[in-house]
Amino acid sequence: MINVLYIGDISARPGREMTLSVLPELRKKHHVDLVIAGIENLAHGKGATVDTVREIMAGGVDFMTGGNHIWRRPDFEELLGGDFPVIRSINYPPDVPGRGFQVIDLGKKGKVLIALVQGRTGINDPVTHDMLRPLDSMLSDQDVDGLSAVIIEIHAEATSEKIATGLYLDGRVSAVVGTHTHVPTADERILPKGTGFITDIGMVGTMNSSLWVKAEIVQQQIKYPYAPAYEVEEKGKRRFDAVLLEIDGPRSCTRITRVNKVA
Ligand SMILES: [Fe+2]
Ligand SMILES: [Fe+2]
What is the pTM of this model? Predict the structure, then answer.
Protein backbone atom coordinates (compact mmCIF):
# COMPACT_ATOMS: atom_id res chain seq x y z
CA MET A 1 0.00 0.00 0.00
CA ILE A 2 1.25 3.46 -0.92
CA ASN A 3 -0.09 6.56 0.82
CA VAL A 4 0.04 9.64 -1.38
CA LEU A 5 -0.84 13.15 -0.29
CA TYR A 6 -1.78 15.14 -3.40
CA ILE A 7 -1.95 18.91 -2.73
CA GLY A 8 -3.87 21.42 -4.86
CA ASP A 9 -2.17 24.50 -6.37
CA ILE A 10 0.05 26.08 -3.70
CA SER A 11 -0.53 29.78 -4.25
CA ALA A 12 2.00 32.48 -3.37
CA ARG A 13 3.52 33.09 0.05
CA PRO A 14 0.29 32.39 2.02
CA GLY A 15 0.08 29.02 0.26
CA ARG A 16 3.71 28.16 0.88
CA GLU A 17 3.49 29.13 4.55
CA MET A 18 0.28 27.14 5.05
CA THR A 19 1.82 24.10 3.33
CA LEU A 20 4.93 24.21 5.50
CA SER A 21 2.87 24.57 8.67
CA VAL A 22 0.56 21.57 8.10
CA LEU A 23 2.75 19.16 6.15
CA PRO A 24 4.96 17.66 8.90
CA GLU A 25 1.99 16.58 11.00
CA LEU A 26 0.02 15.27 8.00
CA ARG A 27 3.01 13.26 6.78
CA LYS A 28 3.38 11.60 10.15
CA LYS A 29 -0.29 11.11 10.96
CA HIS A 30 -1.14 9.41 7.66
CA HIS A 31 2.18 7.59 7.10
CA VAL A 32 2.57 9.43 3.81
CA ASP A 33 5.04 7.87 1.36
CA LEU A 34 4.85 10.56 -1.32
CA VAL A 35 3.76 14.21 -1.37
CA ILE A 36 2.82 15.72 -4.75
CA ALA A 37 1.80 19.37 -5.24
CA GLY A 38 0.75 21.76 -8.00
CA ILE A 39 3.16 24.69 -8.30
CA GLU A 40 1.93 26.87 -11.18
CA ASN A 41 1.02 29.64 -8.68
CA LEU A 42 3.86 29.08 -6.24
CA ALA A 43 5.86 32.31 -6.72
CA HIS A 44 3.65 35.34 -6.09
CA GLY A 45 0.79 33.56 -7.85
CA LYS A 46 2.52 33.43 -11.22
CA GLY A 47 4.69 30.46 -12.05
CA ALA A 48 7.39 29.06 -9.81
CA THR A 49 10.99 29.98 -9.06
CA VAL A 50 13.89 27.73 -8.17
CA ASP A 51 13.96 29.30 -4.68
CA THR A 52 10.27 28.73 -3.97
CA VAL A 53 10.51 25.14 -5.21
CA ARG A 54 13.50 24.53 -2.93
CA GLU A 55 11.53 26.04 -0.05
CA ILE A 56 8.60 23.63 -0.36
CA MET A 57 10.87 20.65 -1.07
CA ALA A 58 12.69 21.39 2.19
CA GLY A 59 9.25 21.48 3.83
CA GLY A 60 8.31 17.98 2.67
CA VAL A 61 7.00 18.18 -0.91
CA ASP A 62 8.54 15.39 -3.01
CA PHE A 63 7.16 15.90 -6.50
CA MET A 64 5.54 18.79 -8.37
CA THR A 65 3.40 19.53 -11.38
CA GLY A 66 3.21 22.77 -13.36
CA GLY A 67 -0.10 23.70 -14.98
CA ASN A 68 -0.79 26.39 -17.57
CA HIS A 69 0.86 29.15 -15.47
CA ILE A 70 4.24 27.42 -15.03
CA TRP A 71 5.58 29.40 -18.01
CA ARG A 72 5.12 32.78 -16.29
CA ARG A 73 8.70 32.91 -14.96
CA PRO A 74 11.97 32.13 -16.77
CA ASP A 75 12.84 29.59 -14.06
CA PHE A 76 10.63 27.10 -15.91
CA GLU A 77 13.66 26.19 -18.04
CA GLU A 78 15.67 25.05 -15.05
CA LEU A 79 12.70 23.52 -13.23
CA LEU A 80 11.45 21.49 -16.20
CA GLY A 81 14.68 20.85 -18.02
CA GLY A 82 16.96 19.88 -15.16
CA ASP A 83 16.96 17.49 -12.25
CA PHE A 84 14.01 18.98 -10.39
CA PRO A 85 11.12 16.56 -9.87
CA VAL A 86 8.72 18.74 -11.85
CA ILE A 87 6.57 17.85 -14.87
CA ARG A 88 4.40 19.88 -17.26
CA SER A 89 1.32 18.76 -19.18
CA ILE A 90 1.85 15.86 -21.56
CA ASN A 91 -0.28 17.29 -24.38
CA TYR A 92 1.95 20.21 -25.36
CA PRO A 93 3.78 20.16 -28.70
CA PRO A 94 7.00 18.11 -28.57
CA ASP A 95 9.32 21.17 -28.74
CA VAL A 96 7.93 22.63 -25.50
CA PRO A 97 10.52 22.15 -22.71
CA GLY A 98 9.98 19.56 -20.02
CA ARG A 99 8.33 16.18 -19.76
CA GLY A 100 4.71 15.20 -19.27
CA PHE A 101 5.26 12.24 -17.00
CA GLN A 102 7.91 10.76 -14.78
CA VAL A 103 8.50 7.47 -12.99
CA ILE A 104 9.89 7.89 -9.51
CA ASP A 105 11.43 5.21 -7.33
CA LEU A 106 10.15 4.87 -3.77
CA GLY A 107 12.55 2.03 -2.92
CA LYS A 108 10.73 -0.74 -1.05
CA LYS A 109 7.37 0.73 -2.07
CA GLY A 110 8.24 0.39 -5.74
CA LYS A 111 7.92 2.76 -8.67
CA VAL A 112 5.23 5.37 -9.18
CA LEU A 113 4.31 6.97 -12.50
CA ILE A 114 2.90 10.51 -12.31
CA ALA A 115 1.53 12.26 -15.40
CA LEU A 116 -0.09 15.64 -15.95
CA VAL A 117 -2.54 16.45 -18.73
CA GLN A 118 -4.30 19.70 -19.51
CA GLY A 119 -7.88 20.32 -20.60
CA ARG A 120 -8.70 22.54 -23.55
CA THR A 121 -11.95 24.23 -22.55
CA GLY A 122 -11.49 27.73 -21.14
CA ILE A 123 -7.68 27.67 -20.99
CA ASN A 124 -5.94 29.74 -23.63
CA ASP A 125 -2.81 27.65 -24.01
CA PRO A 126 -1.27 25.90 -27.04
CA VAL A 127 -1.89 22.30 -26.09
CA THR A 128 -2.00 20.45 -29.38
CA HIS A 129 -3.70 17.19 -28.58
CA ASP A 130 -6.77 16.11 -26.76
CA MET A 131 -6.15 14.72 -23.29
CA LEU A 132 -6.85 11.08 -24.04
CA ARG A 133 -4.62 10.05 -26.96
CA PRO A 134 -1.32 11.13 -25.32
CA LEU A 135 -2.29 9.24 -22.16
CA ASP A 136 -3.19 6.14 -24.20
CA SER A 137 0.17 6.11 -25.94
CA MET A 138 2.10 6.80 -22.73
CA LEU A 139 0.35 3.95 -20.93
CA SER A 140 0.89 1.55 -23.82
CA ASP A 141 4.63 2.37 -23.80
CA GLN A 142 5.00 1.67 -20.08
CA ASP A 143 5.27 -1.59 -18.18
CA VAL A 144 2.27 -0.64 -16.05
CA ASP A 145 2.22 -4.00 -14.23
CA GLY A 146 5.77 -3.36 -13.07
CA LEU A 147 4.70 -0.16 -11.29
CA SER A 148 3.23 0.23 -7.80
CA ALA A 149 1.02 3.16 -8.70
CA VAL A 150 -0.03 5.28 -11.67
CA ILE A 151 -1.42 8.74 -10.87
CA ILE A 152 -2.82 11.10 -13.49
CA GLU A 153 -3.56 14.76 -12.78
CA ILE A 154 -5.94 16.56 -15.11
CA HIS A 155 -5.48 20.31 -15.00
CA ALA A 156 -8.69 21.67 -16.52
CA GLU A 157 -11.44 24.21 -16.16
CA ALA A 158 -14.38 22.08 -17.28
CA THR A 159 -15.74 19.50 -14.83
CA SER A 160 -17.13 17.57 -17.82
CA GLU A 161 -13.63 17.07 -19.29
CA LYS A 162 -12.29 15.95 -15.93
CA ILE A 163 -15.04 13.43 -15.20
CA ALA A 164 -14.92 12.03 -18.75
CA THR A 165 -11.14 11.61 -18.45
CA GLY A 166 -11.50 9.89 -15.07
CA LEU A 167 -14.02 7.40 -16.45
CA TYR A 168 -11.86 6.85 -19.56
CA LEU A 169 -8.97 5.80 -17.35
CA ASP A 170 -11.05 3.84 -14.82
CA GLY A 171 -9.46 0.46 -14.17
CA ARG A 172 -6.32 1.46 -16.11
CA VAL A 173 -4.59 3.70 -13.52
CA SER A 174 -4.59 4.05 -9.73
CA ALA A 175 -6.04 7.56 -9.51
CA VAL A 176 -7.15 10.55 -11.57
CA VAL A 177 -7.22 13.87 -9.73
CA GLY A 178 -8.34 17.25 -11.04
CA THR A 179 -6.84 20.71 -10.49
CA HIS A 180 -6.87 24.28 -11.90
CA THR A 181 -10.14 25.76 -10.57
CA HIS A 182 -8.70 26.17 -7.03
CA VAL A 183 -12.12 25.10 -5.69
CA PRO A 184 -12.36 21.68 -4.04
CA THR A 185 -15.21 19.44 -5.17
CA ALA A 186 -17.05 17.00 -2.91
CA ASP A 187 -17.24 14.15 -5.43
CA GLU A 188 -14.23 12.08 -4.40
CA ARG A 189 -14.91 8.40 -4.99
CA ILE A 190 -13.63 5.10 -6.23
CA LEU A 191 -14.88 4.69 -9.81
CA PRO A 192 -16.64 1.41 -10.81
CA LYS A 193 -13.46 -0.31 -12.05
CA GLY A 194 -11.35 0.69 -9.05
CA THR A 195 -9.67 4.02 -9.89
CA GLY A 196 -9.72 6.80 -7.29
CA PHE A 197 -11.13 10.08 -8.58
CA ILE A 198 -11.90 13.69 -7.64
CA THR A 199 -12.92 16.49 -10.02
CA ASP A 200 -10.85 19.15 -8.24
CA ILE A 201 -8.55 19.00 -5.23
CA GLY A 202 -8.65 22.76 -4.58
CA MET A 203 -5.79 25.05 -3.57
CA VAL A 204 -3.56 26.20 -0.75
CA GLY A 205 -3.59 29.92 -0.05
CA THR A 206 -5.66 32.84 1.16
CA MET A 207 -9.26 31.67 1.44
CA ASN A 208 -11.13 34.92 0.75
CA SER A 209 -9.32 35.83 -2.42
CA SER A 210 -10.21 35.29 -6.08
CA LEU A 211 -8.13 32.11 -6.44
CA TRP A 212 -5.17 33.97 -4.87
CA VAL A 213 -5.73 37.48 -6.23
CA LYS A 214 -7.15 40.38 -4.18
CA ALA A 215 -10.88 40.23 -4.94
CA GLU A 216 -11.09 44.05 -5.43
CA ILE A 217 -8.79 43.75 -8.41
CA VAL A 218 -10.85 41.03 -10.05
CA GLN A 219 -14.00 43.07 -9.31
CA GLN A 220 -12.40 46.03 -11.11
CA GLN A 221 -11.55 43.72 -13.99
CA ILE A 222 -15.19 42.61 -14.19
CA LYS A 223 -16.53 46.17 -14.18
CA TYR A 224 -14.00 48.10 -16.28
CA PRO A 225 -11.86 47.48 -19.34
CA TYR A 226 -8.87 48.76 -17.35
CA ALA A 227 -7.78 47.25 -14.04
CA PRO A 228 -4.67 47.18 -11.92
CA ALA A 229 -2.23 44.26 -12.14
CA TYR A 230 -2.97 41.23 -10.01
CA GLU A 231 -1.76 41.34 -6.43
CA VAL A 232 -1.63 38.51 -3.92
CA GLU A 233 -4.22 38.67 -1.14
CA GLU A 234 -2.10 38.17 1.95
CA LYS A 235 -4.73 38.94 4.60
CA GLY A 236 -7.16 36.59 6.26
CA LYS A 237 -7.58 32.89 6.79
CA ARG A 238 -5.82 30.38 4.65
CA ARG A 239 -6.99 27.07 3.32
CA PHE A 240 -5.16 23.85 2.62
CA ASP A 241 -6.77 21.43 0.18
CA ALA A 242 -5.39 18.00 -0.63
CA VAL A 243 -6.47 14.40 -1.06
CA LEU A 244 -5.03 11.31 0.53
CA LEU A 245 -4.81 8.36 -1.83
CA GLU A 246 -4.39 4.83 -0.50
CA ILE A 247 -3.12 2.94 -3.52
CA ASP A 248 -2.81 -0.83 -3.72
CA GLY A 249 -1.75 -1.25 -7.33
CA PRO A 250 -1.13 0.42 -10.69
CA ARG A 251 -4.80 0.18 -11.63
CA SER A 252 -6.60 0.59 -8.33
CA CYS A 253 -7.03 2.70 -5.26
CA THR A 254 -8.62 1.54 -2.01
CA ARG A 255 -9.50 4.96 -0.62
CA ILE A 256 -9.55 8.63 -1.54
CA THR A 257 -10.09 11.10 1.29
CA ARG A 258 -10.26 14.89 1.15
CA VAL A 259 -8.06 16.87 3.51
CA ASN A 260 -9.42 20.43 3.80
CA LYS A 261 -8.06 22.68 6.53
CA VAL A 262 -8.63 26.34 7.35
CA ALA A 263 -6.32 28.30 9.63
FE1 LIG B 1 -3.69 27.31 -10.32
FE1 LIG C 1 -4.08 26.42 -13.95
Answer: 0.98
